[in-house]
Write a structure and sequence with these properties.
Layout lengths: L1 H4 L6 H10 L4 H22 L8
Length: 55
Amino acid sequence: MTDCVTFSGRKPFRNFKYVIDGSEYRQKWFDFRRIQLKRLVTDYLNNLDIDALAE
């Protein structure tokens, strides 16, 4: 399975990017990343008692 081999050897993140860029999972990866970053920032701001949704 190519996806499992991607993380072994030299430069695993470059290999990961190569596999993602050439696959159907590219958009899913960006969607996942966006959601996780938003969650991280929201949690951080909430821990500082800042309303993350305030404009």
